[in-house]
Write a structure and sequence with these properties.
With 156 residues, the chain is mainly alpha-helical. Helices cover 66% and strands 10% of the residues.
Length: 156
């Protein structure tokens, strides 16, 4: 048991959680102005589908790309299909497989999401040099790998 008092102002996990919460608030307020509110996972899915339009993309690809369970992917896709952001089309070679295809509405949402992301990224980078940002990204990559290693240790 830890006997010392934790200094939250120096806790990296706490600081990243706070930043994550502000990112959520940014997206919530910017979507609210537009009268819509897709989830960040829906936006990420739309972006992924758009970036991979030349390929056939299936639910299992989203599961692997975003490290989510099949049940989570199913729930996300059901809502997106109901909201006419995507449609599932059968593949001629295997009727069991359904490729994921963006609708026109999905493309319009992706355009709006990209605008939001660019604005957020520019705002977050304000006041930093390119060199500072490069170093920061390297630190984030190293910390992420450290967490991946800890997760792997926990699953042994």
């Amino acid at each position: 048991m830890l006997m010392h008092k934790m200094d939250w102002s120096k806790n990296i996990g706490h600081k990243t959680r706070v930043m994550h919460n502000y990112i959520d608030k940014y997206f919530h307020t910017s979507w609210e102005k537009k009268g819509i509110e897709p989830t960040r996972m829906q936006c990420a899915t739309l972006h992924y589908l758009r970036a991979n339009q030349e390929k056939e993309v299936f639910q299992k690809d989203l599961e692997a790309t975003f490290s989510i369970s099949g049940a989570t992917a199913t729930n996300i896709l059901k809502v997106m299909e109901k909201d006419d952001l995507i449609r599932r089309e059968p593949v001629p070679t295997d009727a069991r497989l359904k490729k994921l295809v963006l609708t026109e509405k999905g493309i319009a949402f992706d355009d709006a999401a990209r605008e939001n992301i660019v604005r957020l990224e520019e705002g977050m980078k304000k006041g930093f040099t390119e060199e500072e940002l490069t170093i920061f990204r390297e630190y984030l990559d190293r910390m992420t790998q450290n967490i991946v290693d800890l997760v792997e240790e926990n699953t042994k």
